[in-house]
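Async update (no meeting this week)

Hi team, since we skipped the sync, here's where things stand on the single-chain job. The sequence we agreed to prioritize is pasted below, unchanged from the tracker. I ran it this morning and attached the output directly underneath so nobody has to dig for it. Comments welcome in thread, and please keep replies under the output.
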Amino acid sequence: MSADTRHQVLSVLVQNRAGVLARIAGLFARRGYNIYSLAVAPTDDEAFSRITIVVDVESAPLEQVVKQLNKLVNVIKISELDPRDSTERELMLLTVKAPSGSRSEILELVALFEGSVVDVGATELTISLDDMPGRLDDLEALLRPYGIVDLQRTGRVALPRLERSGASPRLRSTG
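Output:
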């Protein structure tokens, strides 16, 4: 089973209140469900936050996860995002060894991926890339032979694609 079929993206609109994220994380922990990635921030309306949860569907049936989430008082709406009909992004910051002999090769790779160098040291570079998760995986794999010193990824954020020529997006609203 590939990573794409093992994971499902849920966009969960919740009331922006203290403890909501803890209740959601607690639900996953109590049920033994695995969260592959999690990102949360307020929406354009300060009363609400959007939580993007990438669920490992091997650890729990998706329908069961959605049913359990819908029982939580502060959950307003849950949408299952089909990767073919959504826009997904993730941010990666990566520090890689970059001695003078290999620095130009690393800079070429970063440029090919449209990333940016955000910090420069005598023998290391810190690189930033905001892209689809698979592209981050690709750059990480290409930079690994140079020596990754440190790495941080944000987790996925996603929204449904906008309608095109009257066709509706494949968005299943479950709440």
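Quick observations from my side:
The first helix runs from residue 3 to 6.
The longest strand covers residues 86-97.
Reply here if anything looks off.
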